[in-house]
């Protein structure tokens, strides 16, 4: 019960005003009990952080188990997508998924994922310079879930002391996004662009306007009152094709104000790369093969990184699991909320280059509702490994002489669990499937929320006020507000029944999950739609 209590003093038991105590009867004031020190947040051990492609101080890394598992799921889905799009071993073309983590403020990592491929004809050793990347995304942690930053494919990314520099259509146009407390600002703190014009004489304002007009979809307005002659810099270079000197005039603009260009303008803000540069395409000006997708920092293999993230998260949770304590006597502080450990069960028929496993939350020494929750996931695990599971039977077909898995590929069939909320009233978790056996990659997510006193699986109407139509309208409005979905998606949401919605609870808010292609107009996007409505009390 919240807010309950008795008012002491004021009236006696018989309704008469109580006499004030004499000074000798007045109890000496007790010294205020010191405020308990809040427990330190549980983070991955540095032994695991040291195995990650992390740009930042391992000792200061504040990567929580929840964030690690969310990033692992993103990486696994990206790796599967890359296999589906680019994996063509019959053409000697092999899929890539490379990832990097970096400190986005206060030791909270952000994640960069890049997808592509490489060719291997068995002639020479493959190096990172052979990697070709065609898709990438940056994710940051908002405290409860991973959030994608970029709406379009960047040309390059550079981690700087001022934030993340992102260049889109033009190598000379850059947006800088500040980093703070693990979050990447949704709006750039600076938009920067430089121009290079050819001519024997200094360009006029009209010349510069013509050059700017050639840039399509340039999101920057310019203040031409800041354009003065001293802002131009001049350089002469030898043109080896025309065999003559060519004069270039350079100028830059920061948030629309013109400034003098120098080669040190942008590189001065860049941090030294920890490891290597990666990209595809040849820059005709510099000849460097690092133009289309560049990251200055540490890189690593996606599958290996995801495995370390999950292993580290499981180890961190095991340390957080409270030891069983004797029953409390009256007046003692309430017991800690039980936190489950993540148990991974591997298939007992291992096949080379194949991973088959099932993860599930397990409450140790469970009784009551926690025991019911354990039984729920135990049944899911038994169904996964059952001979009647057609997906498992398809995986088993690869263990035969006529079938073989390409040596450069890892086939997967697994379910991974992520704890979303664990309170004295609710337990919420997601169970995500991943399937790749060559060809198309498939993935999906189921979400479950239980009340912990009975183990009952809850629906949206158990946690939200309103009729079924009102709750569905709430979900549709949230999807429009957060993701801008269209009429067809709204109609799909409103036509579903409440028991069709997958959702989880995190920090007191409900997140409704939509898998790839579940909503029209959205396509392969995976959406977690946050509802702002307060949870109603459990009956």
Provide tags for this entry.
539 residues, alpha+beta, Heat Shock Protein 90, six-stranded mixed sheet, 9 helices, globular, disordered N terminus
Give an overview of the whole structure.
This protein is an alpha+beta fold and 539 residues long. The protein is globular, with a radius of gyration of 29 Å. Strands 6, 7, 8, 11, 12, 13 and 14 form a seven-stranded antiparallel sheet that branches. A hairpin with a 2-residue loop joins β13 (244-254) and β14 (257-259). The protein folds into four domains: 42-161 and 273-320, no CATH class; 186-270, no CATH class; 339-458, Heat Shock Protein 90 (2-Layer Sandwich); 462-539, Alpha-Beta Complex (Actin, Chain A, domain 4). Residues 1-29, 266-293 and 323-330 have low confidence and may be disordered. α2 (65-86) packs antiparallel against α4 (302-320) and α8 packs antiparallel against α9. The two termini are 13 Å apart. The protein is built from nine helices and 23 strands.
